[in-house]
């Protein structure tokens, strides 16, 4: 196969070879590693989001599904120190918010432990400018074992940007309750000056608490707790607002936004 044929097979992976280790192995072994990695990097750098996204899917499965095939082991062994990882780290800082999110996801799911610093830098860059990215970023940072995770949560909870604090609610409640960390952050969010943050913090706190208490409750008590929690469910959650804004961006063909546009959109949604 020439390079164009290989690129086409990567881009048709979802349709022609999804989770097929033989399909994956044939592609990654077609060329020497330096050549196949360069080809993948070129696809990842494409301005076309679909090309980037399909390449990211193939790459994730080449690492995850490839573990089931001896034919992929060399590719997997060479991947951590490759130009592919470097390229993904660069794309974490892309102007395209969709590419940022997928690059973060790819680094986490391919266990790129050398990328912990890059993800920490991304948190510093996007903490107050791209709050919809933060949950995914925190998930992958936790997965890779980033040591300053609790410092990141502290920064989010104490941010002057209400959207950053709002973005912290679900993650902080899960993290502090389920891992039995200090509840101080939860209490701060439950008393936030912004009503939607207070309401969602109370709701997520009670949900997380219920998940721990459930084994100790009778069936009747469980049903009552579920009803009580349902009553305090917020009218609009951070995730709901996130989904609506992403739909707005997509319907208008936008791949970039700044924080002032985001805040204006959320304020309009709340006032409706």
Describe the structure.
The protein has 17 helices and no strands. With 272 residues, the protein is mainly alpha-helical. The chain has a domain at 1-112. The termini are far apart. The model has no long low-confidence stretch (mean pLDDT 92).
Secondary structure blueprint with pairings:
Blueprint: H1 3-11, H2 13-16, H3 21-28, H4 33-44, H5 49-64, H6 73-78, H7 83-91, H8 97-109, H9 116-126, H10 134-144, H11 149-157, H12 162-178, H13 184-190, H14 195-213, H15 219-231, H16 238-251, H17 259-271
Helix pairs in contact: 4-7, 5-8, 7-8, 8-10, 9-10, 12-14, 13-14, 14-15
Quick gist of this model?
By secondary structure, the protein is mostly helical. It has a domain at 1-112. Helix content is 70%, strand content 0%.
Multimeric state: single chain
Estimate what percentage of residues fall within beta strands. under 5%
Q: Tell me, briefly, the overall form.
A: globular
Give the class from helix and strand content and strand pairing. Answer: mainly alpha
Helix content: over 70%
- Arithmetic mean of pLDDT: 92
Low-confidence stretches: none
- Number of beta strands: 0
What's the order of the H and E elements? HHHHHHHHHHHHHHHHH
Number of separate helices: 17
For the sheet with most strands, the description reads: none
Rg over CA atoms, rounded to whole Å, is 21 Å
> End-to-end span in angstroms?
56 Å
């Amino acid at each position: 196969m020439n390079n164009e044929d290989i690129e086409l097979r990567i881009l048709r992976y979802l349709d022609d070879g999804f989770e097929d280790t033989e399909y994956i192995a044939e592609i990654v072994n077609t060329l020497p590693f330096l050549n196949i990695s360069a080809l993948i990097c070129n696809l990842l750098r494409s301005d076309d989001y679909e090309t980037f996204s399909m390449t990211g899917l193939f790459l994730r499965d080449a690492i995850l599904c490839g573990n089931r095939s001896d034919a992929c082991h060399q590719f997997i062994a060479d991947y951590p120190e490759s130009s592919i990882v470097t390229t993904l780290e660069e794309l974490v800082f892309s102007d395209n918010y969709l590419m940022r999110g997928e690059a973060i996801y790819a680094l986490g799911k391919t266990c790129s432990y050398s990328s912990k610093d890059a993800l920490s830098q991304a948190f510093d860059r996007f903490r107050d400018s791209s709050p919809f990215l933060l949950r995914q970023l925190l998930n992958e940072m936790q997965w890779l074992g980033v040591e300053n995770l609790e410092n990141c949560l502290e920064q989010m909870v104490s941010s002057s940007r209400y959207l950053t604090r709002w973005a912290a609610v679900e993650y902080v409640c899960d993290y502090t309750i389920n891992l039995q960390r200090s509840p101080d952050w939860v209490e701060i969010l439950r008393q936030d000056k912004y009503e939607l943050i207070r309401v969602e913090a109370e709701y997520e706190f009670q949900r997380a608490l219920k998940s721990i208490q459930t084994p100790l409750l009778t069936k009747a008590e469980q049903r009552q707790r579920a009803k009580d929690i349902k009553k305090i469910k917020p009218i609009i959650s951070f995730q709901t607002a996130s989904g609506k804004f992403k739909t707005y961006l997509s319907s208008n063909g936008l791949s970039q936004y700044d924080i002032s546009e985001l805040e204006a959109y959320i304020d309009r949604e709340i006032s409706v």
